Amino acid sequence: MTERTTFFDTRLDYLKGLGPQRAELLNKELSLFTAGDLIQYYPFRYEDRTRFYTIAELMESMPSAQVRGRLRDWHTEGEGPKKRLVGHFTDGTGTMDLVWFQGLSWLEKTLRRDGEYVAFGKPQEFQGKFSIVHPELDAIRPDAEPEATLSPVYNLTEKLRRRFVDNKVMAKAMRSLLEQAWPHISETLPASLIEKFRLVGKREAVWNIHLPQSPAWLRQAERRLKFEELFYNQLRLIANKLIQKEEHPGQVFAKTALLAHFYKNLLPFPLTGAQQRVLREIHKDCLTGRQMNRLLQGDVGSGKTIVAFITMLLAIDNGAQACLMAPTEILADQHYNGLKPFADAMGLNLGILTGSTKTKRRRVLHEELQTGKMHILVGTHALLEDVVQFRNLGLCIIDEQHRFGVAQRAKMWAKNPVVPPHILVMTATPIPRTLAMTLYGNLDISIIDEMPAGRKPIKTVHKYDKHRAEVFGFMRQQIELGRQVYVVYPLIEESETLDYKDLTDGFEGMQRAFPQPQYQVGILHGKMDPYSKDYEMTRFAKGEVNILVATTVIEVGVNVPNASVMVIESAERFGLSQLHQLRGRVGRGSDQSYCVLMTGYKLSADTKLRLETMVRTNNGFEIADVDLQLRGPGDLAGTQQSGLMDLRLADLAKDGPVLTAARESAQIILETDPQLILPEHAPIRNHIDAIGRTQSDWSRIS
Question: Taking every annotated instance into account, which residue ranges of this chain make up the domain Helicase C-terminal (predicted)?
């Protein structure tokens, strides 16, 4: 073990300047146990103490200010919990009050009348006079000028503050730790990258992230540490991908006779340029003799299913079987119904296996899979059961990847112990490029970024509640033209705390506005039993119902080409990606389709941005980028399960260019030196060896 690793493994209670009691508090409250943990507990913001203000310059809009002056005197006011200590503070340009509600007796003992202090806090104005409640107060010593700095602010718990571990204590502990750690901090990036991107050294970066010498130094420290974090994140993903490609052979799909027959005689419409490009990428993967691991991204309605079917034909042509796994029965049924006409026309045996498949049917399925008589199997998680065994599974397609974890993918691998099947992961949830690189960096990525010809972009409008009569009039017009309408609500029953239109209320209102027998209104929600859901959805699909009032159950629902209007009630309640998914339920046919976003008047800035984005664009990737900026990466694409997202400093919504540079750098290094044996790559090799290859995050200090 190197000297460097031993220092960063030092337990906090052995560090100078901390002591066992504070160390125990940091263990329990913040899960910080070693010097390495503490030095990487970065501030989440900084208070600007680089400037002193006079009392005359104070404004209520300031988030905080520091003032140098004299504490003339103080007195207590009020009784009980309202008892407070009020100090009179002056600096020659005016006077202000300093107010405390806690620790009064201790303050009275320690404050000095006419003492010179620096007061720091949020200025508040009342009747022309400023005050600061619970200011930080530092006495100015005659022999030392007060320091003007950017002060770090750490995420601390209430218990820590009560036990007097505040930002000042943390900054002091950090300074002591940094002084002790200085000789042990080694460079972790090669000189070539430091030079190319003009990065500051590792030591200077770690020091200035905690105790910045100036705003410029803070920017440089952040830039350096973000680059390093993303570089090691990408290096690990790309290394894993290369290992996977080296270690895992894949079946070679060279024959294309079935494919040619399908193209020539049965393809219902010409493929878009994007579909053709993606199919070329997939075919190339299937010729290498290495296992394919590819993510296929495409917006709702971009034609992923036909790409999936053509890929299946490639497998079947070469003596292998294919399966398609979907997260819900509704979606599995939809895929099965979508593929059935193609499979029948090609004379292929297509089966479906879900939780509701009868035992008798299951027995037949299992037998046909083992003999190879079954060519394609569509299903839900039921496909993962051990009893489901294939004769030769060559291709596994997984739909809506974020609903399935890595363990489930691995289970599909084991279905063919000799040569793992090629894996194609499909998603209709557009993932921003930065997020895809971090989440799925070990997969190759294909994107269908073009809509099939003849698809008209959906027209989206935002209407307030007062426009309801106008919206109803528009719905009547569309129904007269023979179209159908979805009306989506966020809730099933009225919630006491939320003043939003609920489904049952909306359903009754809709029946009054669109009375029988002229109109038929249906209802669909998650609390209905599967039979009732299917019954309602089938009536709508057959055109027996004009308006379907529903909750988000229809987000992943059946394809109804005749439904051309989507009205979303309380649209402010939905996230951007959900609004986009709901809108994708219409626009399936050749008619012009519409989406109407209904809201109340009180809208936050974020909500306004969401609605404006929906009205402005139909492009799922553009929408995903705005969503990432609004929500951050944690909520998107189910990233919690990936274990890759605990980035400490980098922000995928803002640091796209840094991520791209880091990924390209990692790629070039691994292509030229996969074993990292060149002398110039020693810092990378030493760093990875020091923290152990088992650790999931190589950017950590070791």
Answer: 459-634
Q: What is the pTM of this model?
A: 0.67
pLDDT digits (tens, 9 = 90+) for 216-252: 999 999 999 999 999 998 998 888 888 777 778 889 9
> What is the average pLDDT score of the chain?
86
DSSP 248-276: -B-------HHHHHIIIII-SSPPPHHHH
How would you classify the pairing of strands 521-524 and 422-427?
A: unpaired
Query: What is the structure's pLDDT at 3?
Result: 45
Helices (H), 268-328: 273-285, 304-317
The residues that bridge with 90 in the sheet, in sequence order, are 70, 95
Integer-rounded Cα Rg, in Å, for the chain is: 32
> Which DSSP string corresponds to 537-591?
HHHHHHT--SEEEE-GGGGG----TTEEEEEETTGGGS-HHHHHHHHTTS--SSS
| 500, pLDDT greater than 70 | no
Which residue, 60, 124, 138, is CA-closest to 96?
Answer: 124
Length of the chain: 702
Mean pLDDT of 607-626: 89
- As a whole number of angstroms, the distance between CA 672 and CA 617 comes to 42
DSSP 109-137: HH--TTEEEEEEE-EEEETTEEEEES-EE
Q: Is 675 exposed, middle or buried (0-12, 13-18, 19+ CB in 10 A)?
A: exposed
DSSP 380-428: SGGGGSTT---S-EEEEEEESGGGS-HHHHHHHHTTSSSSPPEEEEEES
How far apart CA 578 and CA 595 sit, in angstroms, is 13
How many angstroms separate the CA atoms of 455 and 274, rounded? Answer: 15
Question: Is pLDDT at 641 greater than 60 in this prediction?
Answer: no
Maximal CA-CA distance, the chain? 97
Orientation of helix 620-631 relative to helix 576-583, angle to 10°: 160
pLDDT at residue number 4: 46
Between the ranges 345-359, 414-428, 636-650, where is the mean pLDDT highest?
345-359
For residue 465, report the phi and psi dihedrals to the nearest 5 degrees: -55, -30
Peptide bond into 517 cis (omega under 30): yes
Residues 428, 584: Cα–Cα separation, whole Å: 10
Whole-number Å distance between alpha carbons of 653 and 630: 8
Span of 87-91, 576-580, 595-599 with lowest mean pLDDT: 576-580
- CA dist list (Å): 425 to 293, 297, 459: 8, 8, 30
Burial class (CB in 10 A: 0-12, 13-18, 19+), 521: buried
DSSP 8-class letter at 352: E
Confidence of residue 495 (pLDDT cuts 50, 70, 90): low
Q: What is the DSSP letter of 185?
A: P
C-alpha–C-alpha distance, residues 71 and 57, integer Å: 18
DSSP code, position 53: B
pLDDT of residue 585: 84
pLDDT in tens, 243-278: 777 778 889 999 999 989 998 888 888 899 999 999
Q: How far apart are the first and last CA of the chain?
A: 11
Q: Measure the CA–CA gap between 193 and 306, rounded to whole angstroms.
A: 44
